[in-house]
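thread: overnight batch results

M.L. [08:02]
morning all. the overnight job finished for the chain we discussed friday. pasting input first so we're all looking at the same thing
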Amino acid sequence: MDCTTQPHDDDKFHEECGVIGVWRVPDAAAVTALGLHALQHRGQEATGIVTFDGQRFHSHRGLGLVGDNFGDAKVIASLPGTIAVGHNRYATTGETILRNVQPLYADFEFGGLAVAHNGNLTNAHVLHRALVRRGCLFQSTTDSEVFVHLIAISLYSTVVDRLIDALKQVVGAYSLVALTNNALMGVRDPLGVRPLILGRIAGSEDTAGWVLASETCALDIVGAEFVRDIEPGEIVVIDDQGVRSIKPFGRHVERFCVFEYIYFARPDSVMEGMPVYDARKRIGAELARESGVEADVIVPVPDSGVPAAMGYAQESGIPFELGIIRNHYVGRTFIEPTDHIRNLGVKLKHSANRPVLEGKRVVLVDDSIVRGTTSRKIVEMVRQAGAKEVHMRISSPPTTHSCFYGIDTPERSKLLAAQHNVAEMAELIGADTLAFVSIDGLYRALGKPGRDPAKPHYCDACFTGEYPIARPDQTDNAERQLSLLTES
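M.L. [08:03]
and the structure it wrote out:
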């Protein structure tokens, strides 16, 4: 396990990566590093920045956190230029090794190209095998490199046309930023599963700087103004002529990842026009309406459970208290040589606030249950602090299916909700009662009348098993697709 990932975090879905690109911004590397710092929650395993100074590309990539890699002024000084792209990585495909760290860079006949990618290509293995048969030499094991090779072998003349050609061959959920000698480009997949937004840094119309980023919180830290979301299936090209939009895929029904609202996005971000903080409070309120229980105190599992617990408390009229305190200074994982010490691992991150819990009927609010290991330890810790009853409430529906669109999730056999009903889950984690928000309740909290099975607004496959994007790598006709791609 990478040293930046805690063992008790293994019971959470892990963020899918963050990307940022800046155009005509003084000290582009420093601005990009600040943006990556704001997006640190989306990936903690590795980070990288590529800049262009008008003549040459410059790159720095490393394992670990943004501050560990770009906190040194000498590193920033080694990345001159006013345009840049950056990436935070949490590995969903490929090992955590330096050659997999993005942005990926390559030299082409038309010049240099740096690509930073968030998401997952569901036909990556088929494409990889086809490209290898055609003589392409892969330098990494990440599916992001597929984009680079598809652009390399394209017969189109312009970079934009080559990118479109490549995008039409991939299947999956993705957003990406790409930097060439004379343009910054941003792309969202045709269903808009992964997020990407456009911002502008103050200046005249001719001198304004532009920012592409995964979330609006990255704009706030660099002093940029939110302009709009990049639309599903849209390519935005930013160059010296301004910003232009290309939509080569036609119209598709949007399927934005609903888990962004539940857990992934930072609470101070705005996703698809909806403040994430408000959305989480509304989910908590809906959860209280659906599964209220007599209790003395509402306690969030910090930090991701806090807004939902606030909404639950306001709706139920039961006091909200910080009955669990999070230690924010957990660094490199301690050596855990014995089972006894290993079982105490959750207390590295969470501690019970005994005066709040002792003798109380407690409602614990968290965002999800994946394997259930952390929930069991949290419930046990609260009981040991003297709680009279412990009721667990979850601000997402039961997670019954794995994600194949860029979220690092366990295989289905390890998902607690895929193997047990709610009553069994309650017993396994040691709670007196357990309840999840319903899928319709989740949709209502997000401003919809409920989930329309014929036309769901979000990608909710982790709850429903209804995958909106094909998975060619898993199909029986993968060899036939491979032959077609090889011959094309």
